[in-house]
Design brief:
Blueprint: E1 12-16, H1 23-34, E2 36-40, H2 62-76, E3 82-92, E4 100-110, E5 115-123, E6 130-133, H3 136-145, E7 153-159, E8 162-163, E9 169-170, H4 176-190, E10 193-197, H5 205-222, E11 235-241, E12 255-261, E13 268-272
Parallel strand pairs: 1-2, 1-3
Antiparallel strand pairs: 3-4, 4-5, 6-10, 7-8, 7-9, 7-10, 11-12, 12-13
The structure holds zinc ion (2 copies).
Residues 226, 228-229, 231, 262, 264-265, 267 line the site of one zinc ion.
């Protein structure tokens, strides 16, 4: 990416709604490649929109959560034009068994133009994991495997194999001594401890890296302009299944085309994939 020319903004002030030091990775990129002057929101409690340690449940989608953070920043600052927020989610990989997948989004909203840009990054390179232990040794082993103390862990009470934070919740475990005493106290009270990786950005360097990649994707989208109206954010929005079978010509589930579209003016271009037909093994008729 070039830093010169084509910047979307000219030193405009933008607020990043975060409490977890995400500005470390987001600010330099937003400044250099988008021309934004980034400040961290003061007094916006982003944890109110859901935390990974489940003491506050997140409602709605990942994008809803990011939008809610941005909305909160706008409410507090009526003159503010631009705000950013990021949101992560972790869960099982849709195709690879026993493999976790992390999805990060970074959202930019321009209240004056109505522009909303969403940068994405998905990666299996995450330490998202948990373990239930009945003694300190098991907890310490797990911590070592997931990269503690560079990567944080959270120690919670446990009931029936599920986290039960009313039986203990230690979120800011910094040292091996802290960890030993947290495990000891939780196990004494609950019998077992639920130990999981801390997915808050400031305690998870891998996550920080993924947020950086999502920010770079946001820049890429900001620079992709609609050929009809010039609005930023022109991107692939849809993939259409139905590549015909090479034997019988029936449509298969394989992608036949991708669609690029503009939310501003509705301009839409369908681009066919390179393959002209699908192998019969993907066909429901020829290979049921
Ligand atoms: Zn357009
Ligand atoms: Zn067929």
């Amino acid at each position: 990416m070039e830093a010169s020319g084509g910047l979307l903004y000219r030193g405009d002030r933008a607020i990043l709604a975060t409490m977890h030091a995400k500005e470390k990775v987001v600010a330099p990129i937003a400044e250099r490649f988008l021309g934004l002057r980034l400040e961290v929101a003061r007094g916006v409690d982003t944890d109110a929109f859901g935390t990974f340690s489940r003491d506050i449940e997140r409602v709605g989608s990942q994008l809803d959560a990011a939008r809610a953070k941005i909305e909160a920043a706008f409410e507090r600052m009526p003159d503010l034009r631009l705000a950013l927020a990021s949101e992560g989610s972790f869960g099982p990989h849709p195709y690879i068994p026993f493999c976790p997948l992390e999805r990060e989004i970074v959202v930019l909203v321009d209240r004056r133009s109505g522009l909303e840009l969403v940068g994405h990054h998905a990666t299996p390179d995450t330490n998202f994991a948990h373990v239930v232990v009945a003694d300190n040794a098991g907890g310490l082993d797990f911590a070592e495997r997931v990269g503690f103390p560079d990567h944080g862990v959270i120690v919670m009470g446990c009931r029936d194999g599920q986290p039960a934070h009313h039986l203990g919740l230690f979120k800011d475990v910094e040292t091996w001594d802290d960890l030993t005493s947290a495990l000891h106290r939780v196990i004494a009270k609950a019998g077992t401890a639920f130990v999981e990786t801390d997915m808050r950005a400031h305690r998870n360097p891998r996550r920080m890296r993924a947020i950086k990649r999502a920010t770079i994707d946001l820049v890429r989208r900001a620079r992709s302009l609609c050929p009809a109206c010039g609005r930023p954010g022109y991107a692939v929005t849809e993939r259409l299944p139905g590549l015909p079978c090479s034997w019988c010509g029936e449509p298969t589930l394989l992608i036949r085309a991708s669609v690029q579209s503009c939310v501003g003016c509705g301009w839409r271009v369908e681009r066919a994939v390179e393959a002209a037909a699908a192998e019969p093994r993907h066909c429901g008729e020829c290979n049921p």
